[in-house]
Design goal:
Layout: H1 30-40, H2 45-52, H3 56-64, H4 71-80, H5 85-94, H6 112-124, E1 130-133, E2 139-142, H7 147-150, H8 164-169, H9 181-199, H10 202-212, E3 231-235, E4 238-247, H11 255-258, E5 261-267, H12 270-284
Antiparallel strand pairs: 1-2, 1-5, 3-4, 4-5
Length: about 280
C-alpha cells in the first residue's frame, strides 16, 4: 500500500461535525434514530430502559415523538447503544442540540499529537507492514514495508482514495498473490459484516456487495492447524505469512480520531521475519 499524503483525512470539517461533505443534512426525528439504533443492537425497549435506568414508558414516548429527550438523555442512550461518535452528533442535531464531538482534519495544528503517535507506530513497526485506514477502509497512511503488498497491483486500484478491502480482494489487486485467498477473503468479509452491524453504514454495505462479486475459486474455510487466520502472500518468489492486529484510540473524543484504525502485520514464522529484514536492507542500499 503505497503511502498517500501523510495522514490526510478525507472527511474534513464541513460545517456540521459528523456529516460528510455532500451528505443530506435533512434530519430524521430523533425518536426514529433511537428506535433504529435500538433495533440494530437487537434490544427491546425494556432491555434498553433497564440499561439506561429510565422507564420503558419514557423510552416509548421518546421513540414515538410524544416526549422530547434532553441533551443529556440523548447522550446517555447513545452511550448505552454504543452509537459511533459521528452518529451521536446526528442524533443531537435531530433532537435540536448542537453536536458535541468535533471532526478535525488530521493535518490541522491541533492534531499534531495524533499525527506524531500514528507516525511513530508506523515507522516503529518496520520492517513489518502497517497501515492506517478510516471507517470505510480507505487508506490514510502506511509505512514503507507495505510496498510488498502493492507490488504488481493495477494502477487504477492505487488511485486515491485507495480502499484496502478492494485492494486486497480485487482480482487485479493483491488477490492474485494471496496463497490462502479463500480463507483470507472469508476473514475480511466477516470483519466487514461486523463493522456494518456496529455502524449501519450504507457505504460499507455497498462495499460488501461489491466484494462479494469478486471471483474466488478457493474454499472459504479456516485451516484447523492455524491458531489465527494468517495472510499468506507471495513476494519475489517467497511465500510470506503474517498475523495482523488492529489498534484504535481508546479515548477518542473527535470523530476523525475515533474512526482511525491501525492494522499492523507481524511475521507468522521465522522465515518471514528473516525475509522482511532482508527486504528492508535491500531497500536501504
Amino acid at each position: 500500500m503505497r503511502k498517500q499524503e501523510p495522514l490526510q483525512t478525507r472527511h474534513s470539517r464541513v460545517g456540521i461535525p459528523g456529516l460528510q461533505a455532500g451528505e443530506d443534512v435533512k434530519q430524521r426525528p430523533v425518536g426514529e434514530l433511537l428506535r433504529q439504533w435500538r433495533e440494530q443492537r437487537r434490544l427491546s425497549q425494556l432491555a434498553l430502559s433497564i440499561q439506561a435506568d429510565i422507564s420503558t414508558r419514557h423510552l416509548s414516548f421518546m421513540e414515538t415523538g410524544r416526549s422530547s429527550p434532553s441533551r443529556d438523555m440523548v447522550l446517555r442512550l447513545a452511550e448505552e447503544l454504543d452509537v459511533p461518535l459521528r452518529d451521536r452528533n446526528q442524533m443531537l442535531l435531530a433532537a435540536g442540540y448542537a453536536p458535541v464531538y468535533g471532526e478535525t482534519s488530521l493535518d490541522a495544528p491541533e492534531m499534531v499529537a495524533v499525527r506524531s503517535a500514528v507516525r511513530r507506530i508506523l515507522t516503529g513497526h518496520e520492517p513489518y507492514p502497517a497501515c492506517v485506514v478510516d471507517r470505510r477502509w480507505n487508506l490514510v497512511d502506511s509505512n514503507a514495508a507495505t510496498q510488498l503488498f502493492t507490488a504488481g497491483v493495477a494502477p487504477e486500484l492505487m488511485r486515491p482514495p485507495v480502499n484496502t478491502l478492494r485492494l486486497s480482494l480485487h482480482p487485479k489487486g493483491m488477490a492474485a498473490r494471496i496463497r490462502n485467498l479463500g480463507e483470507w477473503r472469508a476473514h475480511l468479509l466477516a470483519r466487514l459484516r461486523r463493522e456494518i452491524a456496529v455502524t449501519a453504514d450504507e457505504v460499507l454495505r455497498e462495499l460488501y456487495k461489491e466484494a462479494m462479486t469478486y471471483p474466488c475459486d478457493e474454499p472459504e474455510v479456516h485451516q484447523d492447524n492455524d491458531v489465527v487466520v494468517p495472510l499468506r502472500i507471495e513476494y519475489k518468489g517467497t511465500e510470506l505469512a503474517f498475523l495482523s492486529t488492529i489498534s484504535t484510540f481508546g479515548t477518542a473524543a473527535d470523530v476523525t480520531v475515533a474512526e482511525l484504525a491501525i492494522e499492523s502485520f507481524f511475521p507468522a514464522d521465522d522465515e518471514t521475519a528473516e525475509a522482511l529484514t532482508a527486504f528492508r536492507d535491500q531497500r536501504r542500499r
